[in-house]
Design a protein that fits this description.
The chain has 19 helices and no strands. The protein has about 450 residues and is mainly α. Helix 14 crosses helix 16. The longest helix has about 30 residues.
Amino acid sequence: MTPEQKKRFKYWQTRTIIATMVGYALFYFVRKNFSLAMPGLEADLGISKTSLGIFLTLNGVVYGLSRFVNGVLADRMNARWYMSIGLALCALSNFAFGFGEDVSYWLTGEHDGTQFTNTMILFMGIMWVVNGMLQGTGFPPCARLLTHWVPPTELATKMSWWNTSHSIGAGLVVILCGYIMGNMGVGASHTGAWRWCFWLPAGISFAGAIALAIFLRDTPSSVGLPELEGTETKDKKDAAATKGPEYRAFLRKHVFGNPLIWILGIANFFVYVVRFSVLDWGPSLLSQSKGVSMEHAGWLVAMFEIAGIAGMVFAGWATDRWLKGRAHRTCVFCMAGAALFVFLFWRLPADAPVWLLFATLCAAGFCIYGPQALIGIAAANQATKHAAATANGLTGLFGYASTLVSGVGLGYLAQHYGWDLAYVGILAMALVGMAVFLLMWRARADGYDEPQAGQSN
């Protein structure tokens, strides 16, 4: 590139990273708002915890499948429009959810009763499943955009910073909806406030979707710039396959027939088991096995997430700084650290100081969130920019399948055999995950034909 082209490329690279960070955070605005609205849905409408749990389960399962399907589609679509339209549709499904009572009245002609309630629950359930399906349009276009605008040797650092977007989005919507539930609605009980937990985030997200369409561009060639240096392939058939009828063959070679992608997917399963075990069971685990009050337990789990943000950023920087982009090697060290700190946390006595519990749990979060971010980076690099979204969809499918173990599996162990065996299970998952990453220790940093500057085998 000429100096002028490099200057323009840097501008568009920064603009793309910031726009996708904001956009992906807004996907969380219309996804993580549900948990804050749940008490209102239960109190105002009489929706049972079982029904709410079914909403969550179906949304999660559909989201995992949708990420995979949309990963395949996004690699062949214009990511600018794919992401902005997807976010707009998520916002509309949230608007519709907030009108659940009105829709049920319109369909049944009743304000209460069994038929009214069942119709309302069915409509809301369908809207939340639809939202889960549409949520899958969030990450895949981001994976495509980032691999077209960020060179492989910088991807770990920049994408680790980018990965903080989901924590930022989730944190901000929790604050927003917490304020809504405590200050809006009718009367002292704030009746109807739950509606605004869907309408207000939806309004913000819809505006964000319009902004995405304005600020994003698909690839460097969309703005008259040459494609990213260092991402060419010697095999011209591979390059052509991304635009012609040979695309399926390209995916078979670089994704579905690529053993490194499958290793990353399997490893992602174990990473998510450890992560979700703490996030989902943390309050119960802390209160029942360590005698921590629920107030302190909530803060400890929150700090686990915050420590994870620092872990993501550090892991990305360390990958580019010391391991020449080999994210899978960083993951080996991170999983070893996660196993160590889970073990130390387990062995702490029930009367251990809260600060010591805090330190060990935060250290575990710092370690486990490194692989959580780096697997997506490694998959994108190994599959190349032409199949980055598909590869991330496949590894993400493994990640969300982990809830079978972290949810039902861990709960069964804790209920029937006690928390000690549950700790052993989490520790085992961390160690197995480390072993899986070791299988690709000797792999190169990416799947491009020519090694990047500074790389060697």
